[in-house]
């Protein structure tokens, strides 16, 4: 879900959604798209953190792919193309099962 969680829950339970002046205080999804000054500063900090996180993810995937490919007796499909797909879409998944279900 990428839309407002508060709005969704209010619609599901038939309650009135109160107006929120500062978007990032509404829910986690609204916080992701908030453009207030505080969030703009946080976004710069998060960008640096995300770059380091992606490097760690790439290293971890390479290590896993190498180990799996070395121990398998048949092609695993674990290759650079798949790794780049995972890295490009990693933030779309909430858990490993969702990631696994999206792969060939």
- Domain tally: 2
- Low-pLDDT segments, ≥5 res: none
The helix tally amounts to 5
Helix/strand order: HHHHH
User: What share of the residues lie within helices?
Assistant: 55-70%
**Secondary structural class:** mainly alpha
Q: Termini distance?
A: 23 Å
* Mean pLDDT reading: 79
Strand content: under 5%
The shape, in one word, is elongated
- Taking all Cα atoms into account, the compactness measure Rg is 19 Å
Largest sheet: none
What is this structure, in a nutshell?
With 104 residues, the chain is mostly helical. Helix content is 64%, strand content 0%.
Write the layout of secondary structure elements.
Blueprint lengths: L4 H9 L14 H6 L3 H35 L8 H10 L6 H7 L2
Helix pairs in contact: 3-4
Q: How would you sum up this structure, described in words?
A:
The chain has helices spanning 5-13, 28-33, 37-71, 80-89, 96-102. It is mainly α. The protein folds into two domains: 1-34, no CATH class; 47-104.
Q: What distinguishing features does this structure have?
A:
0% strand; mainly alpha; single chain; elongated; 5 helices; 2 domains
